[in-house]
Fold:
Amino acid sequence: MNYEAFYRQSVDDPDTFWSREAQRIDWHRAFDTVCDHARPPFARWFVGGETNLCHNAVDRWAQRQGDTPALIAITTETPDGTPAEKTWTFAELQRETERTAAIMRSLGVGRGDRVLIYMPMIAEAVFAMLACARIGAIHSVVFGGFAANSLATRIEDAQPALIMSADAGSRGGKAIPYKPLLDEAIGLSAHKPGHVLLVNRHLAEMNLVAGRDVDYATLREQHLDAQVPVTWLRSDETSYILYTSGTTGKPKGVQRDVGGYAVALASSMEHIFCGRPGDTYFSTSDIGWVVGHSYIVYGPLIAGMATILYEGTPLRPDASIWWQIVEKHKVARMFSAPTAVRVLKKQPPELMKRHDLSSLKALYLAGEPLDENTSAWVADALGVPIIDNYWQTETGWPILSVARGIDDKPTRLGSPGVPMPGYRVKILGEATGTVCGANEKGVVVIEGPLPPGCLQTVWGNDERFVSAYWSNFSTEQVYSTFDWGIRDDDGYYFILGRTDDVINVAGHRLGTREIEESISSHDNVSEVAVVGVEDKIKGQVAVAFVIPRHADRVATPEAKQQLEKEIFAVVDRQLGAVARPSRVHCVNLLPKTRSGKLLRRSIQALCEGRDPGDLTTIEDPASLVQIREALQS
Ligand code: PRX
Structure:
């Protein structure tokens, strides 16, 4: 079957299509209904079925190929950057997951309880995710680069019974303590977890809170022989929550199911990622992001592949480290982000050439726009197909790509590709809500029901799910991606950036509103606007414009610099260094409409040296002059 026929069946006869795809996983109880869409926009997949993500990722492979590698944890966060690694076979991974599951149970965690995982890229983080999946607890992984306030918001929203963390992460060989941030976050949150389970890597001092904090290694010793059978879950039970930024300052908890997600991953591993049991797969993402959930942990394991968990930067001990890993572990499929490739592109080409990369079949890139230059350079350097894929935390797996497991439909430079199975993608005019013609710019939307694996709802807030994602057009109820896009004459899509206040820094999705709220807490900030500005390496960087409360205190360039430094520190402390703006400019006016709405698109345009656009609604044009002057200084 070629792509066209395959895709057509997925949207014209979804029941047949997804019934077939569902056979890629094990079901404890067969489903009765493929998709229940009686209450749109909510969709329930494989209703009546019972399954388990951990069984499909671990146990079934432990039975079939127990001695083959499942998890390969590699760290270059060693004193001199020399890689250290440890491998777990499927049988060993099952045993370790059972131990972690037993520890969680001993701490009172049960089916439906939330477990917040705030961990560096170490194997215990993967055991924790799989252990939750095993016993039906709902995990909520928070990116280790986030700081106290970001963490507190998530603790308060998810209300975890247990938080699992570690003494520290590490970056560039330097320990980054987690425990003090975690304690501060728990202090800030109205909800307090029953227990905090801590992995001690002996990288930083840790003060344990009596009665609350427990040591992972000690409890593991007590559960070495634990056997914890999987809990069979309803297909539409919740597997996890993953918070992501949106238009408001409050992150949304993307809630995912069990059965639909398992099928979507099994299907995408086959058709898009061409995963073969026994092959090795290497994604350079982080478990704190959706790529880490779907394509470090669950996807590759569900496909019976060995997955590499990498802690470290792409440049330490030197810029050949990833290629060294590819060679050593005969990596077949690799997944990264355009920013990482742009960073490596600046390094001497010999570093790549030195290694035998013949095992590598394809490189997948996602998370941000892939520019033609970067794509052409890496295709040439590696000599393998570069597969761009476009999706979101909300969808859990690619919306657009080319499915090399189906046919060899050519890629097109600058385009992530064509719709993947089950996604009924359209482009609608922002104001009109009508379907755009070929090559006409509009908003990328998806018709319901969304395919399996996509978000069920926003955690604890069905109303927000409907109002945020499904109510953007008066013409029809469609899911908005909040991305601009166009479709060319041949059906290839091009993504042209976000329609909302979300920015994408080095493939990390950040909300400008959250950054603004954090900056506002500085006592010399009266108003602030944060916009995403094009950057050659990171794709975008955040740039802040603040109106000081006391202008007299920032009268000199030195004082302005001091304020900038203080604002960096505030953001680092509250949100984490990932959210730190690259520059803070002082102004005494911000461009707004007469009704007081910030004209972010105009500010962004000025920062990028473009025309500020339609200014008929602007309150005070002098504000634009100020932005220009600030940029020049
Ligand atoms: O704007 C799009 C951009 O990243 C957003 C989703 O980010 P996140 O929720 O972190 O999920 C990343 C999953 C890979 C999208 O709304 N984006 C993601 N992939 C691409 C992209 N933009 C252009 N091309 C892509 N391939």
Q: What stands out?
A: The pocket of adenosine-5'-monophosphate-propyl ester is lined by residues 244, 289-291, 366-370, 388-393, 416, 481, 483, 495, 498, 504, 509 (CB under 6 Å).
